[in-house]
Design goal:
The protein is of the alpha/beta class. 47% of the residues lie in helices and 13% in strands. It starts with a strand and ends in an 11-residue tail after the last strand. Bound molecules: magnesium ion.
Length: 256
């Protein structure tokens, strides 16, 4: 098949989390939140213990509601905005002083710190680098689409493992605003790849419903990386004509 481009998903397609569990995710975010609070303390935004406790409560509530909303509406609420909104509530309640002097970069920094724990946890699969190296020798574009609320985290992980250089385009829901399977995030990626009128010559490779359904809606060729383990609340993939593979390297079998 003449393939002009390949789009990969990030989590559990190119990278994995060792022994993934809900507890491990929560543990990671707890560490990240403590580090973000340290930065807020350093800038004298959070001072008293009572304000810190209040902030934790508001942030967690905002994060949970944003997560639910993002799944339901396919709109991403970036972590930086959750920090901004949580602190705004505290200003309105007079728990902390006005934050006029803070700029967007500060909220992005808080989000980067919050997600930094993840950067140590995500590891490339054994054949990820080799597959990308082989694809890079072919005349095609390589892109990545990740449903992630913080763009820099994805870039940092790719840089850390010397994989950033393989990608012509990196799109996250944090930056674009919509999540997979919304077809618009795929159309946006195709446009950035310069291949907007070549959807049927593009492979989308991912490990779950959002990747395959999104690919179907955007008229891309879908390849499902069939994981051994299942996550809770996974949806059945009820579209025809997608290919299943067990290892990311098998994608090379579908490209001339
Ligand atoms: Mg995934």
């Amino acid at each position: 098949m003449k393939v002009k481009g390949v789009i990969f998903d990030f989590g559990f397609t190119l990278f994995y989390f060792d022994e993934p569990s809900i507890e491990k995710y929560f543990e990671c975010f707890k560490t990240g939140l403590i580090s973000s609070i340290d930065l807020l303390k350093k800038h004298n935004i959070l001072k008293e213990k009572i304000a810190i406790e209040d902030f934790i409560k508001i942030f967690k509530r905002k994060r949970a509601s944003s997560f639910k909303k993002s799944i339901k509406t396919k709109s991403e609420i970036p972590t930086s905005l959750i920090f901004q909104n949580a602190l705004k509530i505290m200003v309105e309640k007079n728990t902390i002083n006005d934050l006029d002097e803070l700029n967007d970069q500060f909220y992005v920094k808080l989000a980067n710190i919050y997600h930094s724990c993840e950067e140590d946890e995500w590891i490339p699969f054994e054949n990820t680098k080799d597959t990308l190296e082989k694809l890079a020798l072919k005349n095609l574009k390589i892109a990545l689409i990740s449903n992630h609320p913080n763009h820099k985290t994805i870039e940092n992980i790719l840089i850390k493992h010397d994989l950033f250089r393989f990608f012509d385009v990196i799109v996250t829901s944090a930056k674009f605003g919509k999540r997979k399977p919304d077809p618009n995030i795929f159309f946006h990626t195709l446009k950035k790849m310069g291949l907007e009128s070549h959807a049927n010559s593009i492979i989308m490779c991912g490990d779950e419903y959002a990747d395959i359904i999104g690919a179907y809606r955007a008229n891309l060729k879908a390849i499902l990386l069939d994981r051994k383990f299942k996550f809770p609340f996974e949806k059945d993939i009820d579209v025809p004509n997608y290919i299943k593979v067990k290892d990311v390297s098998e994608i090379l079998n579908f490209i001339d």
